[in-house]
Each structure stands twice: as structure tokens, then as C-alpha cells.
Amino acid sequence: MSDITHSSGPKVGLFVTCLVDLMRPSVGFAAVKLLEEAGCQISVPESQTCCGQPAYNSGDTNNAKDIARLVVDEFENFDYVVAPSGSCAGMIKEHYPRLFADDLEMTARIFNLAKKTYELTSFLVDVMNVEELESRLEAKVTYHDSCAGLRELGIKSQPRQLLSEVAGVALEEYEEAETCCGFGGTFCVKYSDISDHMVKKSIAALGKTDAELVVGGDLGCLMNIQGKLSRQKDEGQASNLKVRHVAEVLAGMTDGPAIGEPE
Fold it and tell me: In degrees rounded to 5, what are phi and psi of residue 170?
């Protein structure tokens, strides 16, 4: 286990998520910075892997349970568990209890973990009462709500409240903000044509705004949007819209390349 800070605040286990670990580690570092500034003691269990959602969504209940047991073992002793992903936090809070509904031995442990698990922006606002940020970004920004964050966890106002505290950010809503981008984990693989139609609709709506940057709380959604933007660019449909995780903006860590840009 890696301890990041030595604050006297709550002990927080950071659930990094698979996509962040493999595709965008900067999101994890941004989450650490934000939690540290909020006064938390942060630990990152080195043996953590996946939340089990891909197996769960594919009907592989046995493997999903095995993965969930590992997560419980790794994180149940923290005061809080925080993930920079509504999808992974939603898996732990909403779906773990359903996975183990018939397992009396695990029920108490599962519910204990679920009740103290939060998505990053929700934790910062609803638990740590963060009202000020020191970051700055001169940009017109729009926010995309992920399905899991919005519908499972009720995350809507929290990221917008935090973005309003970033000096220089002009926040503009777009009409498809609450509509699924078509990622949906394995959905985009199983139903690629439908997924492509959905993300195309999102990007058309984004094009009607003055936004320079689209941000969100789930890396899967953001990679899906960015991937479609890249494919359209290859087809001659240029766009100056860039994509970032909300944690990077809130932490002031936007000097590096946006999602999809070369390192």
C-alpha cells in the first residue's frame, strides 16, 4: 500500500480504476492532489485491480464476485473510498449489494463498503465541503454527465459547483449533456453501430456550443467522445474541441496533452 499524505484528516483509499491506471494516470495524480488539498490522508492500495464491472455487465457473476471480494479486502478499513469515476463508484455502491444479496456472510461487509464509497467530485463537495480551489484555466468549458454518475449516484451539481471555482473557466451547458454518449462499457463493443450513432449525436450537440473543452467524470465516456472526434478529423471534419477529465481541470493539471493528444 502506498501512503501519499500524512494529514490528520479522514483516511481515504483511492480506487484508481483500470482505465485511469492504464490510459490516463494523470487523472489519478490529479485526484490525489485534490484530496490532499482537501485535508485527507490518502492511500493507494497497490494490489487493487478492477471493480468487476466488465464481468458483471457480461453476466460473469462468479468472476465479478471474486473481484468484489478483493476490493472489499483492500478497502474496507478506510474511512472513505473515493474513485475518479461515477461508473466504478456506482458499481461498488449500487451493484455489489445486489451481487451478494444471497450471501449473509458478505452482506455486512459489502454494505459497510458501499455506504462510504464516493465519486471524486461528490466526495469533495458533499463530504469535505470544498468551496474554494486555487486552479486557473482560461477556457470555455462544457460538462458531460456520465450515465452511472448521474443516474445511479445523483451527481449533477457537484462537478459544476467545483468548476465554477476554477478561475477563468466559463461553463456552458450543451443539450445532450445528460444523454448517453454510447460508451456503456461493453455496450460499445456489442452494439458498435448504435454506439457510433449515439456519440455522433453528442458531438453534433457539442459543435453547437462555443466550448473549447469538454470535461466529465468518467474516462470511458471521454475516450469515446475523443475517439469519435479523432475519426471525424481523419475524415476531414476538423474540430478544435479538446477533452479532459474534470479532476485534471480542478487540480490545475492541464499543462500536459489533452486526452487523445500525443505525449
Answer: -110, 110
